[in-house]
Write a sequence for this structure.
């Protein structure tokens, strides 16, 4: 090659490499990049046919792009390459000859010369190879090989970049999916404590759509009440970088919805120079845990109080009866015996209620459903209560044609007993207690109405909760653990019915319940 020819050739090579570098830094996709590289490489060494094959993540190789390669050659080569891998054997002369033979036969062209270069970056495994073929008797020279090396390097960089970008995309998508679908609320904050990212669970917890969360100071998004522990959002500025995480707890109060207690973990994220990049806040709903804790302590205090009274009465009267020196008339013995029996009944009832409550909680309330007459159950219940309270007047209000209901007689009796005993307890000045029912479509609606102390409007939604007792002058003087209405509600709901109430403080209360009509 003459000097001027050589320098023109050299010039063309540099132009080609420059062109490829430009293409690499532009945002071209991998197939277009590889096509450009292969095109220039083939042109520079005067190859008529060529291809780039890439390793596949699962094994085997795939044809990424071809030059002067009609589809019939493509189809002949692809299955052959699919069962190969880029191990040392793959770069042997014999292997190259085999590929030359496949291409020559499929193409029907007198190709004689072949060259292959692995796409490999320093210290890394080969990601594939460039293969070029030409006709004629002039073999590829070491000069051709070193020239092609540059193109192979460029192709290796293109493949590595594309794979890294793809890997980043997959990892980003993975992290986004984890964040979005996490059952915990997540907030990613900037160092100024503004929200950059939030997820679905967080929207549910704070009751705000994502567009009302992003970009806002986190103190506005998390308006916590009763906070304890570290509250970065509420403290304004971030604390100096500590080792580890901050933890706080507090209540999220959302208008018209139930209070949610959350535990928040704040984890800082620093860059390589130790500058704070983000704070990641993770919120866990600990309402149930808190409620269970509160319930446990209420349970212990209520039960110990309610158990102590009858037990100490029973013990006192029993030990008096057992004393040999006590001068007891037969009337006194009978009276003490009656008190012991009454208090034992109370204990028994309390234990049964506790057992029922735990059965309900475990979802194990069994009903024996049959056709029953609500009027008859109410009559016998009222008879029993009439003898217990002289200061109350009882009225029954059942239409003669009231249909029977589908229900468990024992449990319906329990509902009426609880409502009647409350009506008596919470109308200490006496008055009328009316029990009745009417039919409405496919249900019978029963009620127990009193003219007692009533229930303040803000307390009405609470009275069906376990161990809940309204704070009133009567709370201390009346017996009860706050399980009666909880059981009433659970029993009625197990029948497919509902419970509700109407009440006016000072005037009285009516509890309603529905049961399915028997037909
Ligand atoms: P308990 O009677 O053992 O306290 P309940 O679950 O039966 O428990 O009732 C819960 C609370 O609801 C009572 O403590 C009382 O404050 C209130 N309550 C229930 N029934 C009535 C009623 N008829 N009138 C006024 N308040 C009532």
């Amino acid at each position: 090659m003459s000097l001027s020819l050589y320098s023109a050739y050299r010039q063309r090579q540099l132009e080609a490499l420059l062109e490829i570098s430009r293409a690499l830094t532009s945002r071209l996709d991998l197939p277009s990049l590889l096509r450009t590289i292969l095109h220039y490489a083939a042109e520079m060494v005067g190859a008529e046919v060529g291809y780039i094959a890439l390793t596949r993540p699962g094994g085997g190789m795939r044809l990424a792009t071809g030059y002067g390669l009609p589809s019939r050659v493509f189809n002949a080569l692809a299955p052959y390459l699919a069962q190969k891998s880029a191990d040392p054997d793959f770069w042997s002369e014999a292997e190259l000859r085999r590929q030359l033979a496949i291409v020559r036969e499929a193409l029907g062209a007198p190709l004689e010369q072949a060259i292959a270069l692995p796409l490999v970056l320093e210290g890394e495994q080969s990601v594939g190879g460039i293969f070029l073929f030409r006709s004629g008797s002039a073999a590829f020279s070491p000069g051709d090989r070193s020239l092609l090396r540059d193109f192979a390097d460029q192709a290796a960089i293109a493949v590595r970049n594309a794979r890294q970008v793809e890997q980043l995309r997959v990892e980003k998508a993975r992290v986004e999916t984890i964040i979005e679908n996490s059952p915990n609320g997540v907030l990613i904050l900037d160092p100024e404590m503004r929200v950059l990212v939030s997820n679905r669970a967080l929207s549910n917890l704070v009751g705000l759509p994502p567009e009302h969360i992003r970009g806002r100071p986190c103190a506005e998004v998390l308006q916590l009440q009763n906070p304890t522990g570290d509250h970065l959002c509420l403290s304004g500025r971030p604390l100096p970088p500590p080792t580890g995480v901050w933890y706080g707890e507090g209540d999220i109060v959302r208008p018209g919805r139930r209070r949610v207690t959350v535990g928040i973990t704040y984890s800082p994220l620093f860059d390589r120079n130790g500058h704070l990049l983000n704070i990641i806040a993770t919120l866990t709903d600990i309402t149930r845990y808190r409620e269970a804790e509160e319930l446990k302590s209420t349970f212990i205090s209520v039960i110990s109080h309610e158990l102590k009274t009858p037990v100490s009465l029973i013990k006192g009267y029993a030990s008096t009866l057992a004393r040999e020196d006590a001068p007891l008339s037969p009337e006194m013995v009978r009276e003490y015996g009656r008190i012991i029996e009454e208090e034992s009944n109370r204990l028994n009832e309390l234990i049964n209620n506790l057992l029922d409550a735990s059965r309900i909680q475990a979802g194990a309330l069994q009903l024996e459903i049959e056709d029953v007459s609500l009027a008859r159950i109410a009559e016998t219940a009222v008879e029993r209560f009439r003898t217990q309270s002289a200061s109350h007047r009882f009225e029954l209000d059942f239409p003669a044609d009231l249909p029977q209901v589908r229900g468990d007689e024992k449990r319906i009796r329990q509902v009426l007993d609880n409502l009647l005993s409350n009506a008596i307890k919470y109308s200490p000045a006496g008055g009328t207690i009316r029990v009745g029912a009417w039919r409405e479509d496919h249900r019978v609606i029963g009620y127990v109405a009193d003219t007692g102390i009533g229930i303040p409007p803000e307390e009405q939604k609470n009275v069906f909760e376990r161990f809940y007792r309204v704070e009133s002058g009567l709370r201390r003087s009346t017996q009860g653990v706050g399980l009666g209405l909880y059981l009433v509600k659970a029993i009625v709901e197990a029948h497919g019915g509902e419970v509700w109430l109407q009440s006016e403080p000072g005037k009285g209360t009516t509890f309603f319940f529905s049961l399915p009509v028997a037909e």
User: Anything to note?
Assistant: The radius of gyration is 43 Å. The mean pLDDT is 89. Residues 418, 422-423, 426, 450, 452-455, 463, 468-470, 480-486, 509 surround adenosine-5'-diphosphate (CB under 6 Å). The chain has 13 helices and 17 strands.
